[in-house]
Alpha-amylase (Microtus ochrogaster), 511 residues
Amino acid sequence: MKFFLLLSFIGFCWAQYDPHTLYGRSSIVHLFEWRWADIAKECERYLAPNGFGGVQVSPPNENLVVNNPSRPWWERYQPISYKICSRSGNEDEFKDMVTRCNNVGVRIYVDAVMNHMCGVGAEAGTSSTCGSYFNPGTRDFPAVPYSGWDFNDGKCTTSSGGIESYNDASQVRDCRLTGLLDLALGKDYVRTTLANYLNHLIDIGVAGFRLDASKHMWPGDIKAILDKLNNLNTQWFSEGSRPLIYQEVIDLGGEAVTSSEYYGNGRVTEFKYGAKLGTVIRKWNGEKMAYLKNWGEGWGFMPSDRALVFVDNHDNQRGHGAGGSSILTFWDARLYKMAVGFMLAHPYGLTRVMSSYYWPRYFENGDDVNNWVGPPNDNGVTKEVTINEDSTCGNGWVCEHRWRQIRNMVAFRNIVGFEPFSNWWDNGSNQVAFGRGNKGFIVFNNDDWSLSTTLQTGLPAGTYCDIISGDKVNGYCTGIQVYVSDDGTAQFSISNSAEDPFIAIHVESKI
Ligand code: QV4
Ligand code: CA
């Protein structure tokens, strides 16, 4: 009996940190702005067969329709109600997506906007994705319903009503973030209303939530809401499963609010990760890959089992949020693949891969004046994700998750599982290598000269396909082959001008 009590206790401890992915699947992909119908298809045709653990979807609730500028991506972060009704689709389409993805073992994590409603300056009316009436001026959102009682106007102490200093934890939580009407999460009615929204999604079958703007919500208020949440739907999850929670808290240090305040509620986004990795891979500020030997907690990041990590996200890939110019994105493809490859090979954190759409980037005085542009669309209707013959995406979707190097590194992470970080080597500069026990090994050359050396891989002897330059197809390598000797060593040569100056092998790429 004691043993089972212990197990349930462990289960309880892991509960809100556990993504509930199928065994052997370990990464989340953020299909930013995708339609539910396209995500359902992607789960079946691509994500399940390639071992993706789950999908982060854009906010599914009714949002403000912004016409100036024309339908920006960020309108989805201005809730009008909690009706499942947005440019990604309606409730039936959402339910179909969750069911079809769960049925092939791909989880759905919802981007939940709980901190606020729309901007205080929005014009009253029915310019919303489901036509619901709202009046920001009178704090009237009848489709929820919310009224003046349900906002923090009386609690905020700044004269503007907005956040004026990030050194004051109270105003960061109780005042308006960029003018967004701040909900009174201290009130039980608001907590219950939000919990009802999340429970509706849980009952449909979602596996967890990204909590938007968590820095702007008191940790205790978040906990009060989470304590009202149902267990996950037993049609797909074991009895007593708790939703995965990962809280968006941008903490690069130096502010009153810190990530650690939120550890008790669930995982937290580690923004230092992408900012630092971008600086290292770009070789800025004297950073070099040799310094990655103690990557993770050694770099001052939060504990690995509390961290949600990513190279870029929907904000900082376009200059919103945090990370600045060091952030690597699909626009920097060659370096980006190295950064994503490093993230997926390294044991630290729960990994999230970004999947974007192209937009007409146009810099004026260092700012991308088009960073507001929304998803590919026909007169505001989001375009379908089309798949080309070569398995890339059309219609303006980038589909980084379908790039061979990234797809294969998602599989690498699955295959090495919980194997330890091992066999680190570096040349004191930007040539590094490391293994994951006896299951996988990866080598990078980010120097301006070629790499040619023999390394201890930790792998069994044999011939391995490099899964960066190609695939293993019908027992053959379409790219580079690596020969591991009986003593586990192998010779690696990587030109600094290679298309992708890194090589990765694992026990399932052995021929
Ligand atoms: C404007 C003025 C305000 C004015 C207001 C009046 O700037 O001074 O009071 O009008 O209504 C959009 C516009 C912004 C506008 C605001 C409200 O860009 O100019 O204010 O709407 O009308 C996204 C975008 C924001 C966008 C917001 C809502 O990034 O630009 O604001 O959606 O549409 C901090 C937070 C962190 C946050 C990050 C961006 O700590 O939590 O900033 N990240 C999350 C999401 C992000 C989203 C929000 C939070 C808000 O990842 O995408 O912001 O939900 O670091
Ligand atoms: Ca708040």
Remarks:
- Residues 115, 173, 182, 216-217 surround calcium ion (ligand 2) (CB under 6 Å).
- The mean pLDDT is 97.
- Residues 377 and 383 are 5 Å apart (CA to CA).
